[in-house]
């Protein structure tokens, strides 16, 4: 099939279209992947709290779920980019779907083994696949049409990511958290000491509950793999060049200050997103005494806010510079996290939920800013931005370690370790605000 080019979509008298008509079906198909990895992200976030209760491990140990999950992104991003460069976006998508399905189906033997490390391997394999999908789909969507509308096109495609996330949250709440045994951590400790066999049986029951949805997800991903295998996806500009000039490309990327700053900002953005969404359950449990299923409802409200805000912010990009809007939202996120730390009770939880409105624009906007003007270097450049998802790998265990500490005496008040741990998201928003400012005032990019 002939490659697409920006000239195909404008005649000089009309503004370039965000989604040109002749790539509509391909765009819809690729956009479905955004929902698919959003589902994986947000069915997994509540599992940090679930594994802590089932296996009686610390906050730090349970947060290794996120270390393994986002570690797959970090490790596989550059190999994925090189693979896609050598072959094609479609081939990268097919391999990504295959690894995604394999990781999901590995939950079955992991549950039978009742071994936490086996679940971590399953998550890692799954997200090696997601790394291929994101490294393929994001730059592919950017390249599908005119460069002038690339950021808006990616923001629109990314708008379907939180829809998948919301479905993942619903499944986690109704088909996992609600079906786990109601025994709390204290009761499980007593059972473990008094009746090890009964405790093992309880653990096996709960792990079987977790296995089910992941097994179904693996089968769904296999079906999607078949659809992509038979679908015809258009070639885009530069895709016919499969030469791998790794070192020259790396040198050009490392010399691009805007790109490097974008990678750093993306790492801190993913870190703040995963911390806020992963530990909203622990915040509601520890600070307000809520049950996990009730706490998950607030996580779902946060996602609804995130989805709604994504569409609003995508519209606002028509009138405001991405850097300026990004900086404004980061400042808003900073003050909401400040409220999460220092305001007690339900208002603190409301602040944590409200942070999602400020985060909605950030991932695709940072992505689009960093890749703008890179040309064919965008394939490897995209890998750096997906590798930056490693921020979600490192920061949740750090926050979990703070949660495991004793309360902090600040002199004028005592701060619980749960609330104090949100100082890490606070720092993340400062970094993102600086990148937004530099994009708007220093690099001078407008769209």
Strand content: under 5%
* CATH level 3 topology: Growth Hormone, Chain: A
Number of helices: 22
List the uncertain runs.
1-12
Morphology call: globular
CATH class: Mainly Alpha
Radius of gyration from the CA trace? 22 Å
Give the CA-CA distance, first to last residue.
Answer: 30 Å
Strand count, sense and barrel status of the largest sheet are: 2 strands, antiparallel
> So, the CATH homologous superfamily?
MFS general substrate transporter like domains
Q: Helical proportion?
A: over 70%
What is the count of distinct domains? 1
For the record, the CATH architecture stands as: Up-down Bundle
Spell out the helices and strands N to C.
Answer: HHHHHHHHHHHHHHHHHHHHEEHH
Number of strands: 2
Lateral arrangement of strands in the main beta sheet:
1-2
Which structural class is indicated by helix and strand composition?
A: mainly alpha
Query: Mean pLDDT, as a whole number?
Result: 86
Keywords:
single chain; 447 residues; mainly alpha; Growth Hormone, Chain: A; 2 strands; globular; disordered N terminus
Structure description:
This protein has helices spanning 24-44, 47-55, 59-62, 64-86, 89-105, 107-113, 116-143, 150-158, 161-176, 185-194, 196-230, 246-254, 257-278, 280-288, 292-316, 322-342, 346-359, 362-371, 378-387, 391-403, 417-420, 423-443; strands at residues 408-409, 414-415. By secondary structure, the protein is mainly α. It has a two-stranded antiparallel ribbon with strand order 1-2. It has a single domain, classed as MFS general substrate transporter like domains (Growth Hormone, Chain: A), CATH 1.20.1250. The protein is built from 22 helices and 2 strands. α7 (116-143) runs antiparallel to α8 (150-158), α7 (116-143) packs antiparallel against α19 and α16 (322-342) runs antiparallel to α18 (362-371). A hairpin with a 4-residue loop joins β1 (408-409) and β2 (414-415).
